Amino acid sequence: MTEKIEQFKNIIRDFAKIPKNSSEPTWLEICRYPYNRFEEICSRILAFYFNPEAEHKMKGLWLESLLSAIKKTEWYDYRHSIKVNTEEYAEGKRIDITIVSVDYVIAIENKISAALYNPLGAYREHIKKAYPEKKHMLLVLSLNPILDTKPLMEYNFQRCSYKTLFNEVNSRIGNYMAEASQKYLTFMIDFMKTIDNMNNTNTQIEHNFFTENRENIEELITRYEQYKANILNVQIEHIAFLKEKMSNLTKGAWWVWHGWDLGVTFNEKSHKIGIEAHYEEIEGDPLARFHACITTWKKEDWTPYRETILADFAEYNPGIHENNTGENWNRVYVWIYNGKGDTDSIIEVLEKIYNKLNAITDKIK
Asked: Do 357 and 263 reside in the same domain of the chain?
């Protein structure tokens, strides 16, 4: 068992060393369409930024970066009028993006999550027929490597990765930021972050870690859940004892919620108020501390009692907590007791809190 515990410790230490990604979602991740539509949305975003005359005011940043990424920097001419199309049809199928200049045309098949099953031959023939006098570049822009490169070679398509394109954009962006629309600059950064998150190196390291340590991690989780269950069982047993004891002492209708939360309520038909109490585990001791509070389940129910309770319970130095967010946003907690889990002391405190609150609620209905 000692050897197994050492394995668990090593796993935890190794996991702590893995770089962690920010858990905050990008705006595009929040609004994400299903995967069968996400590539379409990204193509429209790319088309917007590839257009030097669009409202982003970053001029040729993205077009220049793309040409550099595909080794065609000699094609760039800021004087040329550029037309960027999405979903140009070729034999009933859609070419994701076409960039049309005076001298050249770039046809882009955008691949983020789906496999490369598109009719590249039909795309090539369409570009030849539609733009016979222009130089052609047939391109697959992909997030992940293309495993089967035969179609690329057969139909003369070149592959460019998102990483390469983004590197080119980042290397030039400083020259365009001053005049850029801040709104569309923010959108652009959010878009790039979204794509990066889908193929982040740190994420891959984490995936590899879980794959390599799957069995030990699953065993560790199972043992930890059992550890927590044992702690909860001890707390449930003591809460049940306290419920019986307090019910006999006070003759009140004490209740238990989910086994671990002891409570009693007053004035349920008017300004409902009550007592709640529970144990806290510290360093493996299930009964290390005991917490008791006066609570209302609606903030408006707290107002009639506020001054009287704060005065009558002043000896406990009560701490008021009003939830403004989360599941219990409308509740008020007044923490009365936070002490060691000595049963006799707990019973004495709970009885005292009950009697005081009972007297207050008899007067305030």
From this structure: yes
Residue pLDDT, tens place only, 49-87:
999 999 999 999 999 999 999 999 999 888 888 999 998
Element (H, E) at 318: none
Whether 6 is covered by a domain: the verdict is no
Can you tell me whether residue 362 is helix, strand or coil? helix
What is the extent of the structural domain holding 353? 218-363
pLDDT tens column, 116-153: 888 899 999 999 999 999 999 999 999 988 878 888 98
Alpha carbon distance 168, 153 (integer Å)? 25
- CA distances 323 to 120, 157, 334, Å, are 58, 59, 11
DSSP state of 32: P
pTM here is 0.58
DSSP secondary structure code for residue 60 in this structure: T
Question: What tokens were used for 180?
Answer: 């850029």
Rg over CA atoms, the chain: 33
